[in-house]
Write a structure and sequence with these properties.
This protein is of the alpha/beta class. Helices cover about 30% and strands about 20% of the residues. It is built from 13 helices and 18 strands. Strands 1, 2, 3, 4, 5, 15, 16, 17 and 18 form a 9-stranded mixed sheet that branches. Helix 4 packs across helix 7, helix 7 packs parallel to helix 8 and helix 8 packs parallel to helix 11.
């Protein structure tokens, strides 16, 4: 009779393929059995009747800003927030930390900071800028999951945007290294020019900021990135797409054979531009929130299966950076990694988004795209990364302790139909009854690249 470290009993086990009530056994940090009634001894049992069991969220787009700007967030607080939201891994972006991850030394510094403090496992993006094209190979040797480029101003002096020549050459080199390039797709000439004119004319309110980043700026940049990727043979990932029309462009490119994926974020699915005026600077981001028609079109594309994954684009800053009369000057970033899963499920209930689709969008598709071995599924041999969640009934409150370093956020009332109860990373409990109980132990995830 086998003996297991623990068995999760009677949960609604959800994968991208479907859901069933089953037991799940774990030993040595991996799933070793999934069946309706597992026999055998276990050191511990986790009762899960009435709870959903999903693969741990892998947030493919977070900014934790450490080293250099730990006061903005940091690995300890950021990873605790992730775990509280059901995440067991993340892919952390190269900018907002100082120095940004543009070479081996910066990679090693960030990896060491993460290994000291992160509760969750982590992959690291490398940067692609005009000044570091000759460092892409060494970043690949370090184990980056891909290269991130900005097609418009990144609002960080130490991370300049990539002009077309830089982006094309970077894509050629990334293709040779068999790694994807992720792009922030907004047209720099449009966004910079419109912002400059507005400020010269003294138009610095929320609506003026929104008008400076129209949907055409995103659509044009997406089209250009697709062309460059197709010509260079590079795998392309377009981050935080805010428009349904942008997703449609990407879907058309897939149909003609371009190796491209895209993500959107819960804030684009939940909020609109009207909320920017109502909430204020906490809701400022780039690309900005769109009008109701664009949001509805984004949902249509998502439900049609053309959005590949959901990420938070968690981009925090100290409160003082989110204040001021000039809306162009305040920091543009939304805190959201703790709320990604409950907000998506809550909003998805009214749109008919199934839990297997949630599992695909937040875990298995992420692991596939970025080649994270052993991640993204509840299956024998995979890392025992999962969360238990509870669908809430009317009047039942989703109790929450916010783990962001700066806990002000925009999600009040938007996560009230789902709660994460337990989060487990490689067999170790990070969250119990909604409270973070784990300690640092996150490991670097290196992409499993094909042999050529």
């Amino acid at each position: 009779m086998p003996t297991y470290d623990f068995i999760v009993r009677g949960g609604n086990v959800v994968t991208e393929r479907g859901a069933m009530v089953a037991d799940v056994a774990v030993s040595d940090g991996r799933f070793v059995a999934v069946a309706p009634d597992i026999e055998g001894d276990a050191t511990a049992t986790i009762p899960a009747a009435g709870l959903d069991m999903l693969p741990g969220v892998i947030d493919a787009h977070v900014h934790f800003n450490e080293p250099g700007r730990t006061e903005w967030e940091g690995w300890a607080s950021g990873s605790a927030a992730l775990a509280a939201g059901g995440a067991t891994a993340c892919c952390e972006m190269p900018l907002n930390a100082h120095p940004p991850t543009l070479d081996r030394a910066a990679f090693d510094t960030k990896r060491e900071a993460a290994e000291r403090a992160s509760l969750v496992d982590f992959a690291l993006w490398g940067g692609l800028t005009p000044g570091n094209l000759d460092r892409l190979e060494e970043l690949a040797e370090c184990g980056v999951v891909g290269f991130k480029a900005f097609m418009s101003d990144a609002a960080m002096d130490d991370f300049p945007h990539a002009d077309d020549d830089t982006l094309y050459e970077g894509m050629r080199r990334a293709a040779a290294l068999r790694l994807p390039v992720a792009v922030h797709a907004e047209n720099d000439a449009i966004t910079r020019g419109r912002a400059r004119r507005a400020r010269v004319e003294g138009r610095t309110g929320a609506r003026d900021y929104l008008a400076s980043r129209p949907a055409i700026a995103e659509l044009e940049a997406i089209g250009r990135a697709l062309l460059l990727a197709e010509e260079s043979g590079c795998a392309l990932h377009i981050v935080h797409v805010s428009t349904g029309r942008g997703v449609a462009l990407i879907a058309e490119a897939k149909d003609r054979g371009v190796d491209v994926t895209c993500e959107t974020c819960p804030h684009y699915l939940v909020f609109t531009e009207d909320d920017v005026e109502r909430i204020g600077a906490l809701a400022k981001c780039a690309p900005p929130l769109r009008d109701t028609a664009e949001r509805d079109m984004l949902w249509s594309e998502l439900l049609a299966g053309d959005v590949d994954l959901i990420a938070s684009d968690h981009s925090p800053a100290p409160p003082a950076m989110k204040e001021g009369e000039d809306f162009f000057a305040v920091w543009g970033g939304i805190s959201g990694c703790q709320h990604l899963l409950p907000a998506l499920v809550t909003a998805g209930i009214d749109h008919g988004l199934s839990l297997p689709e949630v599992a695909r969008l937040t875990a298995s598709a992420v692991a596939r795209r970025f080649r994270l071995p052993g991640k993204g599924g509840i299956a024998v041999g995979h890392d025992a990364d999962f969360f238990l969640g509870k669908r809430l009934t009317a009047g039942e409150l989703a109790e929450e302790q916010c783990y962001y370093r700066h806990p002000r956020h925009i999600w009040a009332g938007k996560c009230d139909r789902y709660r994460v109860v337990t989060t487990v990373r490689r067999g170790e409990a990070l969250v119990r009854e909604g409270k973070v109980v784990g300690t640092a132990g996150g490991q670097l995830l290196r992409p499993d690249l094909p042999v050529v």
